[in-house]
Amino acid sequence: MDGLLLDGFIHEKTHDYVIVKEPRPSCLYINPKIHKQGNPGRPIVSANDRPTERISEFVDHHLNPEAPKLPSYIKDTTHFLTKLNSLKDIPTGAIIVALDVASLYTNIPRKDGIQACRDALDQRTEKLITTERLCDMIRMILTMSTFEFNGEFFVQKHGTAMGTKMAPGIREPLHGKV
Question: In whole angstroms, how far apart are CA 134 and each of 53, 103, 115?
Answer without folding.
Answer: 15, 25, 11
